[in-house]
UniProtKB/TrEMBL annotation:
Inhibition and activation profile: Non-allosteric.
Compartment list: Cytoplasm
HAMAP family according to UniProt: Phosphofructokinase_II_Long
EC number assigned by the record: 2.7.1.90
Function recorded in the entry: Catalyzes the phosphorylation of D-fructose 6-phosphate, the first committing step of glycolysis. Uses inorganic phosphate (PPi) as phosphoryl donor instead of ATP like common ATP-dependent phosphofructokinases (ATP-PFKs), which renders the reaction reversible, and can thus function both in glycolysis and gluconeogenesis. Consistently, PPi-PFK can replace the enzymes of both the forward (ATP-PFK) and reverse (fructose-bisphosphatase (FBPase)) reactions.
Catalysed reaction equations from the record: beta-D-fructose 6-phosphate + diphosphate = beta-D-fructose 1,6-bisphosphate + phosphate + H(+)
Residues the record lists as binding substrate: T199, I200, D201, K238, Y239, M246, G247, R248, E307, Y420, E421, G422, R423
Protein name per the record: Pyrophosphate--fructose 6-phosphate 1-phosphotransferase
Origin: domain of life: Bacteria
Classification via Pfam families: PFK (PF00365)
Annotated site location: Important for catalytic activity and substrate specificity: D172
Gene name tied to this protein: pfp
Keywords: Cytoplasm, Glycolysis, Kinase, Magnesium, Metal-binding, Transferase
UniProt-annotated catalytic positions: D201
Length: 546
């Protein structure tokens, strides 16, 4: 494989580990835990994996470790650092016993069910150290939830003499990891299941998980691009740039990029929902900022839009809820109809209020909302062109204001969607170290016989040496929620907290950013150089840990 000069130099980077993971390790167990909500229901559903203690790794004595084989799966969307989780896992299992073997299941959880795998060897893994992407073994969104999938997985697990499976994924994938752990424990199969917190979206975090890996690199990559656009925009002074940012439902990515780049406007879906704003009010707010800047002679600006916005506008959110239930219940009758018949079918089955909202939506948006969900039941928000929808509505509003003499200026828009551009970037130093430590922790959880745990690394705004590694029972992060028309146990998704420091810090400055031009050009991720340039965590993490 031909590699770039940067990749070559970066391959030599040795990720730093927390002190407790540098040598032999033993575990310190905390008190029994309970789920964040719905304790009785979760306990009933997970009798074998509920209530386990939190775990911290502390330095221990070398012992003779018995031979183990482990399987690893990358699940869901790519996130920078996934290869380093596998490198950390590989190095740690080989250190525990050089005869240990690591198998990678190919193209996501489907690889386990369909028995597609490779053995990960030293030469093979060396090509992927500190690289972005999930191409080492591929990823996929197959949902592991049915007993026959678990049993089919068991066949290959037995054949390869695997005693543990590590699933690297987001909230949905880790929920499924927990269901699988419980199933194998209930059946006394002796197969452990361990999760790792992945997603650029930053929505898999809570009291135990400080951040999901990939958020750091993805937001730095998007911020570089936003900064470049801000500079172009401030040079030509003739466009308003509408930038949609990936991140699914939560607005963590948009908020972090706003803190890094200080755009004129950044919408936060959670705030729009809390204030019960209509689409028209959101549009009016943007148009007011455009008109204010135009009056100062500034016919330019940058607007950041979280990709999940549409779901958070209350009327549209209610419509999506009903559509989710409708598609879950009648998906099969509906699937084979043509476009027009599908539209009619939906209108005929929706409640009056939601049908009225559905009819006000532009055709493209309505179509996306009524199309297939992903295997976890999520609307595929990255396919909805919210940036165009908003800029068109702002243009219409300004035209109306111009006729009424309230707007004298020019409004010309450019559109961008930053999503896939950031998911496979070479991991920042933070993600490279964090992921390597997560992989090492996962190996230690396996070696210590644990199942139903997620690997965690804490104190991540301190120096790497001082990071603390361990494991959290996945059931501890669960509650009951409505998904695909059913109430299910799931890991609670973290949305932007409106009383949290990152949001408050943004609110304190955003009026100034809207009126003035206070852009910050953060530039590309740096891997070598002064620590304040190369090793800074995200602003979100710093503010949350203050
Ligand atoms: P995960 O939750 O699986 O980490 O996915 C992250 C993500 O990048 C979202 O931000 C985005 O909405 C989605 O994946 C896009 O999915 P796909 O890659 O299937 O188009």
């Amino acid at each position: 494989m031909k590699i770039s000069a940067l990749q070559k130099a970066r391959a030599a980077y040795q990720p730093k580990l927390p002190k407790a993971l540098q040598g032999a390790v033993k575990i310190a167990e905390g008190a029994p835990t309970k789920s964040v909500d719905n304790q009785e229901e979760i306990k009933k559903l997970f009798p074998n994996t509920y209530g386990m203690p939190l775990i911290e790794f502390i330095p221990g004595e070398e012992v003779n470790n018995k031979k183990i084989n482990i399987g690893v799966i990358l699940s869901g969307g790519q996130a920078p650092g996934g290869h380093n989780v596998i490198s950390g896992l590989f190095d740690a299992v080989k250190k525990l016993n050089s005869e240990n073997r690591l198998y990678g299941f190919l193209m996501g959880p489907g690889g386990l069910v369909d028995h597609n795998y490779i053995e990960i060897t030293a030469d093979f893994i060396d090509q992927y150290r500190n690289t972005g992407g999930f191409d080492m073994i591929g990823s996929g969104r197959t949902k592991l939830e049915k007993e026959d999938q678990f049993e089919k997985g068991l066949q290959i697990i037995r054949e390869l003499n695997i005693s543990a499976v590590v699933i690297i994924g987001g909230d949905d994938s880790n929920t499924n990891a927990c269901v699988l752990a419980e199933y194998y424990a209930a059946k006394k199969y002796g197969v452990q299941v361990i999760g790792c917190p992945k997603t650029i979206d930053g929505d898999l975090k809570n009291d135990q998980i400080e951040t999901s890996f990939g958020f750091d690199t993805a937001t730095k990559t998007y911020s570089e691009l936003i900064g470049n656009i801000e500079r172009d925009c401030n040079s030509a002074r003739k466009y308003w740039h509408f930038v949609k940012l990936m991140g699914r439902s939560a607005s963590h990515i948009a908020l972090e990029c706003a803190l890094q780049t200080q755009p004129n406007i950044c919408l936060i879906s959670e705030e729009i929902e809390a204030k019960d704003m209509t689409l028209n009010e959101v549009v009016e707010n943007i148009a007011e900022a455009v008109a204010y800047r135009a009056a100062q002679g500034n016919n330019f600006g940058v607007v950041l839009i979280p990709e999940g916005l549409i779901e958070f506008i209350p009327a549209i959110g209610r419509l999506i809820q009903e559509l989710n239930d409708l598609l879950a219940a009648h998906g099969t009758d509906y699937k084979d109809l043509d476009k027009e018949a599908q539209h009619k079918y939906i209108l005929a089955h929706l409640s009056k209020e939601n049908a009225a909202t559905f009819e006000t939506l532009p055709e493209g948006v309505a179509r996306q909302l009524s199309l297939d969900r992903d295997p976890h039941g999520n609307v595929q928000v990255s396919l909805i062109e919210t940036e165009k929808l908003l800029s068109e509505m702002v243009a219409a509003k300004l035209e109306q204001w111009a006729k009424e003499g309230k707007f004298k200026g020019n409004f010309s828009a450019q559109h961008h969607f930053f999503g896939y551009e950031g998911r496979c970037a070479a991991p920042s130093n933070f993600d490279a170290d964090y992921c390597y430590a997560l992989g090492t922790s996962a190996a230690q959880l396996v070696a210590n016989g644990k199942t139903g745990y997620m690997a965690i690394v804490k104190n991540t705004t301190a120096k790497t040496d001082e990071w603390r590694a361990g494991g959290v029972p996945i059931t501890m992060m669960m509650n009951m929620e409505r998904r695909n028309g059913e109430i299910k146990p799931v890991i609670r998704k973290a949305l932007v907290e409106l009383d949290g420091k990152p949001f408050k810090s943004f609110v304190a400055k955003r009026d100034g950013w809207a009126k003035n031009t206070e852009y910050i050009y953060s530039g590309p991720i740096q891997y070598w150089g002064p620590t304040e340039v190369c090793d800074q965590p995200t602003k979100t993490l710093i503010l949350e840990q203050e």
